[in-house]
Amino acid sequence: MSRKQTTAEEEAGAIDLTPMLDVVFIMLIFFIVTATFIKEPGVDVVKPEATTADLKAASILVAINDNDEIWIAKEKVDDRQVKNTLERLYAENPKGWLVIQPDKEASIEKVALIADAARRIGIEKVSVATEKS
């Protein structure tokens, strides 16, 4: 009888962790749903330096490497497909904005091509990424 009595006392003093686990899972789901993931263009570039660099997050990243190749969403994009690709990405996030990440050796013509395509689509916020010196 003492064995049953000890077990009953332990159960009466035990803490039920189920509500705490429910809260933890709800918080986990909340953070996963509200998180913004870092998007990468798919190629590493050496950014030019600027004294007025400002750190911001972007929803559309376009990289131009030193060979003047345009990379969007980890895919190499032909010059003729830039506008269509940007339209598709902008349709997914119409409140987003565009960041162009040119390499130091990239030509200004490629940057202008991307900025012009963004302007034609209606992307108002366009910036060029640089390294802060």
Describe the 3D structure.
The longest helix has 17 residues, at 18-34. The strands form two sheets. The chain has a five-stranded mixed sheet, covered by helices on one side. The chain has four helices and seven strands. The radius of gyration is 26 Å and the shape is elongated. 20% of the residues are buried. It has 133 residues and is of the alpha/beta class. 41% of the residues lie in helices and 17% in strands.
Largest beta sheet, briefly? 5 strands, mixed
Helix content: 40-55%
| Total DSSP E strands | 7
Shape: elongated
- The whole-number mean of residue pLDDT values reads 81
Question: In which order are the strands of the major sheet placed?
Answer: 4-3-2-5-6
Low-confidence stretches: none
Please write the string of helix (H) and strand (E) elements: HHEEEEHEHEE
Beta-strand share of residues: 15-25%
Radius of gyration: 26 Å
- Secondary-structure-derived class: alpha/beta
**End-to-end gap:** 79 Å
Q: Output the number of helix runs.
A: 4
Compile the SSE list and pairings.
Blueprint: H1 2-13, H2 18-34, E1 49-50, E2 60-64, E3 70-72, E4 75-77, H3 82-92, E5 98-102, H4 108-121, E6 126-128, E7 131-132
Parallel strand pairs: 1-7, 2-5, 5-6
Antiparallel strand pairs: 2-3, 3-4
From the structure above, extract its key features.
two-stranded parallel ribbon; 133 residues; alpha/beta; 4 helices
